[in-house]
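Project standup — Tuesday

K.O.: blocked on the structure for the chain from last sprint. Re-posting the sequence here as requested.
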Amino acid sequence: MSETENKVREIEEKAAEEIGRADAMERLNEIRVAVLGKKGTLTQVLKGMKDVPKEERPMVGKWVNDARAHIEARLEETKARLEAERLNARLASETIDVTLPAKKQKMGHRHPNTIALEEVERIFVGMGYEVIEGPEIEYDEYNFTKLNIPANHPAKDEQDTFYITDDILLRTQTSPVQARIMEQGKLPIRMISPGRVFRADEVDATHSPSFHQIEGLVIDKDITFADLKGTLDVFAKELFGPDTKTKFRPHHFPFTEPSAEMDVSCFKCGGKGCRFCKGEGWIEILGCGMVHPHVLEMCGLDPEEYGGFAFGVGLERIALLKYEIDDMRLLYENDIRFLNQFS
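H.V.: unblocked you, prediction finished:
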């Protein structure tokens, strides 16, 4: 027997002994690497073929390959045995108590903001409106200038916002969507635009630096303030109940003229006065008005031929009123005890 053949047999016999003593998968992997790996003892024999006479090289290759096959077979056999032993041990130690109650699947549900938004969308879609969304990162031109709020206008102080550059900001209202749609010139327009807006407000029971608005816009020929009042009266009755009354108070908004704020009769006390409406019998709900002629001109429309109305309402405002929530922060704290009330 040649020295090389003897060496290969010694490697195979030693590997077989170590495999037989292995009691864990980790140990098997160590043996595999030590014998068959790139720097393993059997692999080193093949790397030394350059020192073997040419006529003996085929025999050396056969010895090494046979040894490799035997070692791999033993490794697989031992691996199967160890896996079976581990499975049996788990089956013996892990038992299932079939008398225990099953785990309940907890299903998610819509957030109160989402419920309120879907209700508003249902009302306006039923009146023939489209739901259109726009970018949250907006140009100053659309957020202010095209809405009749030029540089240094006092309204900019009221809507102190987050600027990214001198010309780009996080929108303070969803009204820029109205300007974008009017620019397209596809008339008539009947749309609402819900979305998230941003203002540099301190967090308290009624304010947040991030909240949601729903803007509405109608542009057509022969639109009057009576159309605005009729539309919002129907909206209020659908949202808060058929006995709801509406009241309009003069106000000022840069992008509408004339402008108004709309109150609804307290749906808790029927207008008699209670804690919910602070004894007044009325609750402020939204701002509205006829689209300013200058806004129409800046968006490429002829104010002599077309007119329209616009309104804006806070989504959180609706949710707080509809579900009698007294702190806006509850909507965002993700307290499961609070949110479960809306499942």
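K.O.: great, moving the ticket to review. The chain has a mean pLDDT of 85. Residues 7 and 191 are 87 Å apart (CA to CA).
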